[in-house]
Amino acid sequence: MAYVRPWLSGLLLATCGPVLVLPGDDSVHELAPQVVTATHFPVPAASYPGSASVLSPDVPEFAGLADTRELLSRAPHVRFRNAGGSPADAQIGLRGFGEGGGDRVLILVDGLPLNRPDMGGVNWLQVPLGAIERVEVLRGGQGVIYGSRAVAGVVKITTRGAGRGGVLDMMTGGHGLRRAGVRGAGEPGAVRVIGGAAYHAEDGYRANSAFDAGSAWASAAGGGEATTWRLTADVASLAAERPGPLISAGFPANPRASIMDGQDFREDSVQATGFVSHSGERVDAEAETVVRRRAREWNLSGVHADNVNRTARVAPRMRLKGDRAEIVAGIDAEREELDSLLFVRRERVAPFGDAALRRDMLAGYLHVSLAAHETLGLFTGLRGETVGLDFRYDEGNRFAANPVLAPVADGRRSDRGWAWTGGAVWQLSGNGRMWARADRLLRHPLMDEIAAYQGFQLEKPFNADLSPERGWQGELGAAWEGPCFRMSLALFQTDLRGEILFDPALSLNTNFPRTRRRGVEWDGALFLGEWTFGAQYTGVDARYRAEPYADRRVYLVPPHALGGYVSYGRSGPVNARVDARYQASQYEGSDFSNTRAKLPSHTVFDASLSFHVREGMRLTLALLNALDRRYATVKYLGSWYPEPGRSARAGLRIDF
Q1: How far is it, in rounded angstroms, from Cα 412 to Cα 572?
Q2: CA-based Rg of the chain, rounded to a whole angstrom?
Q3: In what helix (H) or strand (E) does residue 203 lie, and over which residues does it extend?
Q4: Inter-residue contact 64 to 621 (CB < 8 Å)
Q5: SS3 271
Q6: Nearest to residue 644, comparing CAs of 266, 64, 86, 25?
Q7: Which of 95, 74, 45, 38 is nearest to 521 (CA)?
Q8: Residue/partner pairs of 343-347 with CB below 8 Å, 24 or more apart
Q9: What's the DSSP call for residue 141?
Q10: Distance from CA of residue 509 to its chain's centroid?
């Protein structure tokens, strides 16, 4: 047995996960420990009391992906719904939220929100893959640190900082895909600079579903060991068509058709951000600020609108570090302004509606972590938040040649509330942890959940009776990591009072008395030499808990979702990966009573292959929806919004 143990240890080192053995090298290179920034400041993932995933677009097995949404879809327990025909404004969903799921997930880019102040979707093409260094997905309520939009979770995107050299990547493929990006970095003197540009366009799988997006960004950073600073500026432009739904007779017989023409939108944005940090022996301090302008022009049947959104935000915070305790305290202050003009014709002659909205938010928070024992950590936190909204809307006769605008609605409201969190995390022997936490949830209504200014008639133009959502979340979880595997399991329950839902019978957003979501999330990966085998399961029981729909399931929430993948080539020149994703059938949109035909289940397979052609050059081939499955992730009142069919693509990356 004396010779067996060294042989077995060598086999594990050569084939298993947390270490990497280079060919011809007798040394063992340990991979860097994973960190998360759940309190803004970095902490080891092994001591985080919650569910988190970390992704990097630089992993070779992700080389065949085209945009940020596709990268996020590879994270465990993340799903997307898409009614627009393009990745530009797909709606993300976490923790059993269906319709409006994207309104309950906060999307941060370098700590600053990408979400709009209304129910408009996130432009995922605004942040190209080439600009991203890493992505963290924090699942579950994160309201104490991140505010009222983080009911279901937070997606934190970190863009690239320091470095040298550059990258050119290009991709072409089915449905008229055309994508190119370039970035470069250097350190002239004491300042580190990085910048890039990207272009992404498709003709679209369906008729009237083309999109065209471009972006450019630049960043300068500097400082020493203790104090650092960073300034970033970026511009982005997006033009996208919307194909609209298909009635049952047209799907799935001809999912590429469109019965709509002339429905589209265009969005242009410009943004500047600043960040400064200081790290000391006992105190760390950070402050970030942003100014942003987004202009969106959209066209639907009979309504054409120009919206201009202006944002200003400042967020200072600090961390006090003791021998056994850590305190994080901060302030978030934000102003959002939205001006909207409505027109009858695309030519935008003489508006019939003119709205102005202003939303001010001010919040303060405190989070305390305590090492109660060598293996036990406790935490608690509290946030107070106040939001004020001012609204004015002038409207005229839309059928008049030159409408005379007159005041028809105005209002002012102020909401305040608080969120708290508390729990514990236990360090297990080896690389394992268990956690238990409880969170009090709070979500303030968005602008167009309260006010009617988008050209669609509501029963009340300013709904002063609409209240914030409140509730609680409980979670129990465990995670393990060994030399050949990684695994995590979480059980959760989310109860909301006053969840905001659109009631078509009232033509108004209303507060539903009670909803409940219970679920389980399991994911794991097994590492065997060059092979990786991964799987995940998400089970959710989402129900209304009050009359008239007591015990009915929440629509557009699949009760079961499965995923799995196999990849080869963890450290070699060739990498191959096959993904499979399954979603169970679910009730269609607005089916509160659960009596209509369901949105059917579906399974989709993707495959990719990438390999080094030579030093600094990688070629990628990919096949999405390999079996050409005809399916949809959104269905309302018998009308379908099909997802793309089979698509092949090829890409080339050159490092210089």
Answers
A1: 61
A2: 25
A3: none
A4: yes
A5: strand
A6: 86
A7: 95
A8: 343/304, 343/305, 343/306, 344/302, 344/303, 344/304, 344/398, 344/399, 345/304, 346/262, 346/299, 346/304
A9: -
A10: 24
Q: How many CA atoms lie within 13 A of 54 on its CB side?
A: 16
Is there a contact between 427 and 47 (Cβ–Cβ < 8 Å)? yes
Instruction: Quote the distance between the C-alpha of residue 442 and its chain's center.
Output: 19
CA distance 31 to 43: 16
Lookup: tokens for 481: 């990591």
Q: Is 385 helix (H, G, I), strand (E, B) or coil?
A: strand
pLDDT for the residue 30: 36
- Compute the distance between CA of residue 288 and CA of residue 40 in angstroms, rounded to an integer: 11
Residues in the chain: 656
Predicted confidence (pLDDT) at residue 93 exceeds the cutoff of 80? yes
648 vs 17: CA distance, rounded Å: 31
Is 29's pLDDT higher than 80? no
Cα–Cα distance between 413 and 463 in angstroms, integer? 10
Which two structure tokens, joined as six digits, stand for 408? 């028809």
- Which residues, 6+ apart, have CB-to-CB distance to 137 below 8 Å? 52, 53, 54, 55, 72, 75, 78, 94, 153, 154, 155, 156
Distance CA 289, CA 312 (A): 8
Residue 547 φ then ψ, to 5°: -70, 150
Q: Are 104 and 119 in contact (CB under 8 A)?
A: no
- Assigned token pair, 567: 């990849």
Which amino acid type is present at position 324? R
Q: What angle do CA 337, 343, 349 make, to 5 degrees?
A: 110
Q: Tell the residue number behind the tokens 């022997």, with chain if given.
A: 429
Dmax (CA) for the chain in angstroms is 95
Q: In whole angstroms, what separates CA 609 from the centre of its chain?
A: 26
d(Cα 594, Cα 359) in Å, to the nearest integer? Answer: 37
Domain ranges of the chain: 1-31, 32-253+260-655
> Does pLDDT of 543 surpass 70?
yes
Q: Give the β-pairing of 153-159 and 105-109.
A: parallel
Tell me the C-alpha distance between 196 and 655, whole Å: 14
Note if the pTM is more than 0.90.
yes
Give percent of the chain with pLDDT exceeding 90: 76
- Check residue 239 and report its DSSP letter: E
Kindly list the distances between the CA atom of residue 59 and the CA atoms of 132, 567, 647, in Å, as whole numbers in the listed order: 12, 12, 22
Phi then psi for residue 248, to 5 deg, are -55, -30
What's the DSSP call for residue 188?
A: -
DSSP state of 128: -
Over the stretch 43-85, which tens digit does the pLDDT of each residue have? 888 889 999 999 999 888 898 999 999 999 999 999 999 887 7
The pair of three-digit structure tokens given for residue 614, joined into one six-digit string: 């030579």
| Domain covering 32-253+260-655, topology | Maltoporin; Chain A (2.40.170)
Q: Are 643 and 635 in contact (CB under 8 A)?
A: no
For the chain, helix, strand, coil in percent to 5 are: 10, 60, 35
Tokens of 55: 């992704």
